[in-house]
Design a protein that fits this description.
This is Acyl-CoA dehydrogenase family protein. Pfam families: Acyl-CoA_dh_1 (PF00441), Acyl-CoA_dh_M (PF02770), Acyl-CoA_dh_N (PF02771). It is built from eleven helices and ten strands. The chain is of the alpha+beta class. The chain has three domains: about 110 residues, Butyryl-Coa Dehydrogenase, subunit A, domain 1; about 110 residues, Beta Barrel (Butyryl-CoA Dehydrogenase, subunit A, domain 2), CATH 2.40.110.10; about 140 residues, Up-down Bundle (Butyryl-CoA Dehydrogenase, subunit A, domain 3), CATH 1.20.140. Helix 4 runs parallel beside helix 7, helix 5 packs antiparallel against helix 7 and helix 9 runs antiparallel to helix 11. The longest helix has about 35 residues. The protein is globular, with a radius of gyration of 21 Å. The chain starts with a helix and ends with a helix.
Amino acid sequence: MLNDEQRALQESVRDFAQDVVAPVIGDYYERHAFPYEIVAKMGRMGLFGLPFPEEYGGMGGDYFALCLALEELARVDSSVAITVEAAVSLGAMPIFRYGTEEQRKRWLPKLVAGESLAGFGLTEPGSGSDTAALTTRAVRDEQTGEWVINGSKSFITNSGTDITTLVTVTAVTGRHPDGSKEISTIIVPTGTPGFTVQPNYSKVGWCASDTHELTFDDCRVPAENLLGERGRGIAQFLRILDEGRIAIAALSVGLAQGCVDECLRYVREREAFGQPIGQFQAVQFQVADMEVRAHTSRLAYYDAAYRMLAGEPFKRQAAIAKLHASECAVDNARTATQLHGGYGFMNEFPVARFWRDSKILEIGEGTSEIQRMVIARDLGL
């Protein structure tokens, strides 16, 4: 199904994950430290620029290439994978999709090179899936023309690193004629007065990734920092999320496959009752089910990515892929931990990290319940 170029990319990222990430990521994870050295190496490999044109410093590839890379990274570690996913699909992609040529030339070169990161400011403390409930506001100062932003955002990835340069923020900028909120997207560079990055969250998983709450207190940015058309913020970000769900599905497949990898290694070595536990049919069936889940999830995200790149409707397929793959990742992580027994509860074993990382996949970029709503609505219900 993959062509020679895609297989070469897959193999190169797989080798990188095994040779560079795997030996050191456990230490970063335990220290809750952001892996700047790994990020820099991924930048030099071109991973952050995979789906972007060469004119902005990208690799000239497509979104499917990004997904292949994410799957291979997540087979070893999801913190590293989500750093790339969020940097590309949530950070740089809105600039590429909706930015002016001036905005693209200003921000994209360093983003696609992995030299800087960008955050995606949609979720708020009281507004997750209900995006219409967001309360962050941006008001135009008629004298200066600046946008004055007040509010807060929650759970924002790549928003507080030393190399973060901007966050795109959704804010209420007025009212539509029918009285509904006019929501627009505004670029807020880091270091802007009134923009405060709160301390890093203490998280259950993704412990080597960067996640913060952000607050805006009379934060002023120029009028030209409006991203895309005024009042189209939610429509823009829903498109970004549709694409991002394919990427999260790919990441989920990587975690699910990583569980298979680790279990195959373990059950061949671990002995009980005089033989490797992989000789017991009960164990064999569990590993077989894990492989089925990973394989079918992979086919789902391949299908969604194909439809997107072919210019076909893909919203439903993206939701199916994200829903199925994320739930399969959780199932595989649970089974892998169980097969490892007490060792599965020890952080030195990758499956313990996989177990902690898996649950957020059913929540981030649209919960499983939201995916079911999207699928049902697309079916006409």
